Amino acid sequence: MGAIGIVAAGRGVRAQAGASPNITAVPGIRVGQVTLSSRPTGCTVVIAPAATVGGVDVRGGAPGTRETDVLAPDNTVAIVNAVVLAGGSAYGLDAAGGVMKYLEEQRLGYAVGTSVVPIVPAAILFDLNVGGHPDIRPDAMCGYRAASTASSGAVEEGSVGAGAGATVGKLAGPERAMKGGVGSAALRRPDGLVVGAIVAVNAVGSVVDPRTGRPVAGVRTPNGKSLVDPFMWIRSGGSSSPMPLANTTIGVVATNARLTKGQAQRVAEMAHDGIARAIVPSHTPSDGDTLFVLATGSLAGDPDVSTTGQLAAEVVSDAILRAVRLAKGLPGFPAAADIK
User: From CA 20, how far away is CA 32, in angstroms rounded?
Assistant: First the structure.
């Protein structure tokens, strides 16, 4: 990135004291994040332990992805070494190259003779319209730094990494939108099953608390001081003028369950219920909503795919709520904490 400043956030403290468990509650999962200092954007990298099986499900109409075909159940390679989430639109996919370089140096990847080829799927969100200077975006160095600082400890949340320039609630145009971000959550069952998620939230729609149905962040009223109910907005015929292709919610679900590629894909499909519960509307033609699944397989026994998928949806919706609640506002994009 040359002269572009970066701030590594992989070993930082949580954005909130006493926060709930995050995706690194899944044994072996590590997270690293880099936030560029010269424009609100960055990348988030999830590194998986050896022999982790991957899956993916893409629901939005405007995705930006890399290496998703390799995760199809009928294709040969089953392992995934890392997943990259990045801002910067399609330019941000370059961050995956830096992660590959780091993993190659560690001799981590799919063995091919005496070489290894790291398997690093990626997804991006559009944030080029935030903060000016759209020529500043995550690149291979961003990915390398995020991977090299990844840890199994606390995950910083809010306006960091891939969520640094994320915004939500663009149904009425960007002038009434709010700040999005990165959030993470995890659940552990008494039988030892752990499911966690990390999500970068940059949605057309508004974020709602599925337990109450009330908006948390999203479309604001014309005076900017309160939130519009997205359900009523849609039903009452409110105009919709989101920036096309300028959005997207992307994330990674991790579990210690022992899943096949087909089962991992099914969990990814079920995990999208978490997006649908917490973002209204979701999976629109202007979103590229994409969720990856990483199954480390450290939990012995046959997997309960249905339960794993249900927990995945829960942690995805929890992570989305944390992303906007812990975000910090930017000029023109107030955070949830700024709306009283």
Answer: 18
Q: How distant is the alpha carbon of residue 21 from its chain centre?
A: 16
- Size of the chain in residues: 340
Give whole-number Cα distances, 270 to 80, 208, 260, 267, 305, in Å.
Answer: 20, 19, 15, 5, 10
The tokens for 172 are 């009425």
In the sheet with 215-217, reading across from the earlier edge strand, the strands are 215-217, 206-208, 279-280
Q: Is this model's pTM higher than 0.85 or not?
A: yes
> Residues 6 or more apart from 84 whose CB is under 8 A from it?
43, 44, 45, 66, 93, 95, 96, 99, 120, 121, 122, 123, 143, 146
Mean pLDDT for the stretch of residues 4-24:
49
Residue ranges and CATH numbers for the domains of the chain are 6-333 (3.60.70.12)
Distances (CA, A) of 179 to 2, 4, 123, 294, 319: 28, 23, 20, 28, 15
Tens digits of residue pLDDT in 245-287: 678 999 999 999 999 999 999 999 999 999 999 999 999 898 9
DSSP string, 25-60: GSTT-EEEEEEESSSS-EEEEEE--TT-EEEEEE-S
